[in-house]
Fold this sequence. Notes:
By secondary structure, the protein is α+β, with helices and mostly antiparallel strands. The chain is built from eight helices and nine strands. It has one domain (about 1-120, about 125-225): Bit1. The protein is about 35% helix and about 20% strand. The longest helix is centred in the C-terminal third of the chain and has 18 residues, at about 145-165.
Amino acid sequence: MSGHCREDSALVRAMPIVLRVERARPPGRTALLEAAASAALAVCLDPRAQPGGEWHAEVAAWAAGRIRKVARRARGAHWTAVGALPGITVSVADAEVRALVPGLVVETPREVSRLQISGTDLPLDAPGPVPPGIPVIWLNPELELTVGKAAAQVGHATMLLAAALPADRLASWHAEELRCAVRMATLPGWLSLATEVAAGQAVAVRDAGYTEVAAGTVTCVAHWPH
C-alpha cells in the first residue's frame, strides 16, 4: 500500500499560479483574484495548448486527472524569474498573476518551488458594481479562504464555465481576454445561486478537500448575469 501511495504522489500534476505580491505595494485582493481566474483559463485555451501545440501534452495530461492548482506568491527578482517559464501573465488594475503550464509536482521548477504557498494574505476590499457583459464568480460568504486558496478556486470556476459555454460564446469571451468579475456573495444571494446551479444556469466549484475546507464544500459559483 505504501509503495502505491508513493507512486501516486509521483504522478500528481498541478498548475502553478503565481501571485505577484510586492511588500511595499501589495495589490487589491479582488483584482488579484480576477487576474488569477483569467490566467488559469488563458493557459488552457492558448493555441500552444491545443493539439499539435508545444504545451498540449502537459495540459492534456493534467486535464485528464484531478484539476489541481497550487497558488504561490512572488515578489521582486523571484517574480521576474517566474516570467521566463512557460505560461501566461494577466494584469487587472494593480494586480498581476502568471499561470504556468501544468506539470508533475515532483518536477516543479526551482523558480516556483522556492516560492511560499502560505503567508501574506490580503484584506477584503470593496470592488464596486460588476461591469456589464462579463461573467461573475461569487465566493461562498460562509468561508474565510486565504487569497491563495481563493485564487485556485476561481481558476477552477472559469474552467468549468468555459466548458459549459457554446463554442461561439467561448470564442467571444476569449477575444475579450476572458475578463471576469469576482465578488463575495451575500447569504441570500448564495442561496439564489444554489438554485441556479441546480437548474443548470450556473456552475459550482466543489473542493477536493486537500486544504482549508472539507471535501465537497462549494467554494464559489460562476455564471453570466441575466
